[in-house]
Amino acid sequence: MLVRVLQLLRDNQHQFLSGEKISEELGCSRTMVWKYIESLRKEGNEILAVSNKGYQLIGETDQLSEHEIKSRLMEDSLFKHVHFKDNVDSTQIVAQRLVNEGAHTGTIVIANEQTLGRGRLGREWFSPPDTGIWMSIIVRPEIELREAPQLTLVTAVAVARAISNVTDLEVGIKWPNDILINGKKVVGILTEMQADPDRVNSVIIGIGINTNQEKFPNELKKIATSLSMEKGKKINRAELIIQILKEFEWLYDAYLTMGFQFIKPLWEARAVSIGKRVKAVTTKEVFYGMAIGIDDQGVLLLEDDDGKIHPVYSADINHTMD
Ligand code: BTX
Q1: Total structural domains in the chain?
Q2: Peptide bond between residue 176 and the one before it cis (omega within 30 degrees of 0)
Q3: Is residue 92 in contact with ligand 1, taking CB distance under 6 Å?
Q4: What ipTM score was computed for the predicted complex, to two decimals?
Q5: CA of 118 to the centre of ligand 1 (A)
Q6: Name one GO molecular function term (predicted).
Q7: What does the pLDDT read at residue 21?
């Protein structure tokens, strides 16, 4: 019901909507309408109430909830199942549980805070309350195992485009999973796959976005930033989530039907490492070389000083002067 009330108020944002009209639309009493309005107000939505006129939404909350997300999603959206939690260990862990229970493609888990947010290789992901977007998307694509890492690049393009649209900031992608603004990390993407020996069963794509933080712990100060720090104003998280889901939905569809070659130029247009000398740290070795591009599979290509080209499947990339 809260989803419908929010949708009705939003659809009529520049006028008053009578309690009678809302109760008719919802098929409930006007007392119930009043209760819904009160609970939306408690969450921080500014709703005017004028006798003989009705209700008008004049300001939206940044408090995340299932109805804040669902009320903004189109009916035919891929994302039919939204799980919102105020506090979780990690949305990846919750999503894994849902996968085990048979969750459908397009299921999403969103949290207001993570106490055990994780990055790649078991690293920590700082996920404080009320300020960030901590979200996992479950998909079940029919792709080969070797193609699964491409979903990280698909997601990076979707998130970068959504952030550009919402904030107008210049957004770069550092292979494979970082989104940077002014050289600092604003988004991390973690793609975890569940597979049978020959085929992908499901993929959980974790997306962490520093949205409205105004400060970071000392160890992150030099490398991390948030959208509000870069933009100089707060960003509505639910709005940005919807933009990301919209971008992801059409890019994911294009990827499944046309393959990675559709995504490659979109990714390259935002790549910040290509044409630069980089240090690539893999779990086994450290490479220095020129990042010359990605191949048709999304694998990074590094040229060493002897002109030999090395494919890099997974690594941390640092820009270097040496
Ligand atoms: P990563 O391994 O590339 O980056 C992790 C590194 O980034 C950390 O070691 C630290 O140096 C730095 N870092 C930690 N927290 C932040 C932060 N908030 N902003 C900028 N830098 C930071 C990146 O892994 C993948 C992160 C995915 C996070 C999402 S959130 C939703 C989902 N749930 C979950 O537990 N993880 C994913």
Answers
A1: 3
A2: yes
A3: yes
A4: 0.99
A5: 6
A6: biotin--[biotin carboxyl-carrier protein] ligase activity
A7: 93
